[in-house]
Amino acid sequence: MRDADGQVTSTIRRTVLPSGLRVISEQMAGVRSAAIGVWVGVGSRDESASLHGCSHFLEHLLFKGTRERSALDISIALDAVGGEFNAFTAKEYTCFHARVLDEDLPLAVDVLGDMITASLLSEDDVEAERDVILDEIAMHDDDPDDVVHNLFAEQAWGPDTPLGRGIAGTAESIAALSRAQVARFYRKHYRAANMVVSAAGSVDHAALVDQVRAAFGREGFLDGEEAPVPPRSGAVARRVHPGTVTASRPFEQVNVVLGMQGVPRDDDRRFALGVLNTALGGGTSSRLFQEVRERRGLAYSVYSFASHHADSGLVGVAVGCLPSKLDDVLDVVRAELRRVAAEGISEEELSRGKGQLRGGLVLGLEDSGSRMSRIGKAELVHDELLSIDEVMARIEAVTLDDVRSVAAQVFGRREILAVVGPS
C-alpha cells in the first residue's frame, strides 16, 4: 500500500515452511504494536453429532497448560507485558490471537506456539472446563439474539447438520464428550499444514519466521513435509431449507430473523450484496431503520446481515419488537424486501452504501489486530488476498444493475423465519 505521497506504508510477505505451516505478515509503518494470530482450519462444521461442541471445547482447553507453562503461567506471560490475549471458534476455523508491544512479539509467538503444539489436555482440566462451557451455553440461552440466530441457522441448514448446530454445543453434547475424543480431534486437525500464523504491525518477517520455527518446533510439530491444506471447497452449492420455526422463551420482546439463502464467500456478487445490505439495513439512514423504527415506531433494533461460508451463505433481517407489533413488523420487512427485489435501490442509496463500505473497511484496518485478521483469514479460507485498493475498486465498480440483479436473485427466494419470544 502507498499513502497520499506515494510512500509505501505496509508490506505483506509470506513464507511456507516444509511442514506446510504458512507464515504471513504485514509490516505497518508508524506503529509500535504487533498482533499475531494462529488460524486453524477447523470449526464446528467439521464435527460429527457425537463431537458437537468439540472445536470450542478444545479452544478453551489449550489455555489450560503445557509441560512448560501452567494455565496461570500462560495468563501471567501476556498480562505482565500489557498484552491482549484471546481466542474464538467459528463455523469453519478457530483463531488464537494476541496483541503486544513490538518488542514483546517473540514472547507472544512462544506462548502461542507452546499452547498450540504441546497442550496437556489433562483429565482434570477437561472436567473443570466442561463446567465453564456449560455455564457459557446457559448464558447464551438467556440471550434472545443468540437464541434466535441459532434457531435461524438450525432451520436454514437443518438441525442434524454441522452448519445447523450451534458452535458451543449443547448441554447434552458437552456432558458426553470424553477427554479421549477431544484429544483425537486435536491430533487430527491441529496439524502444521492446516494452520496459518499471521502477524501485522511493527513486524520483521524474517525474524518472525525464525521465532515461529522455534516456538512451533516443539513435540516434533514441524517435522515432515506436507503441502498446505487448500481452502475449504465450495464447488457444490449447499441449499437451505425454507420454513418457519418458533421457540417459546420468557423474554419481554419477540426476536425475529427473516432471511433467505445468500451467496458463498468467494462469489463475485458479494460486493454488490454488501452494498445492498448496507442500503437495506446497515445503519440509521438505511431503509429498514427508517421505515421500521423512525416512521412507524415498530421496533428499537432492526438491521440486515449477510453471512458467507465456503459453499453457501445467508442473508436476513433481524428485529426485536413487542409481541403486539410482530405482525406489523413482518409485513413491513416483507414489503421492503419485495420492493428491493423488484426495483433495486436508488442512485443515492448506491452512493451511500459504497461510502459506508469503504469507510468501514479503511477505519476497520487502522490497527494491527484488524490487519492481522484480514491477512490470516484470507490465507486460510480464500484463494486470494486482495489488497485494500483492490477491494475498494471492486466496491466502487458495483452498479445499480448489479445490485438490482443480486436483490432479485436473493430476495426472490423462499424465506426462512425464526421467531423467539413469550408464548
Description of the structure:
The chain has 423 residues and is α+β, with helices and mostly antiparallel strands. The chain folds into two domains: 10-220, Metalloenzyme, LuxS/M16 peptidase-like (Cytochrome Bc1 Complex, Chain A, domain 1, 2-Layer Sandwich); 243-421, Cytochrome Bc1 Complex, Chain A, domain 1. Helix content is 43%, strand content 19%. It has 15 helices and eleven strands. The strands form two sheets. It has a six-stranded mixed beta sheet with strand order 1-2-6-3-5-4, sandwiched between helices. Strands 7-11-8-10-9 form a five-stranded mixed beta sheet, sandwiched between helices. Helix 9 (270-281) packs across helix 12 (347-364), helix 9 crosses helix 15 and helix 12 (347-364) packs antiparallel against helix 14. The longest helix is centred in the first third of the chain and has 19 residues, at 123-141. The termini are far apart.
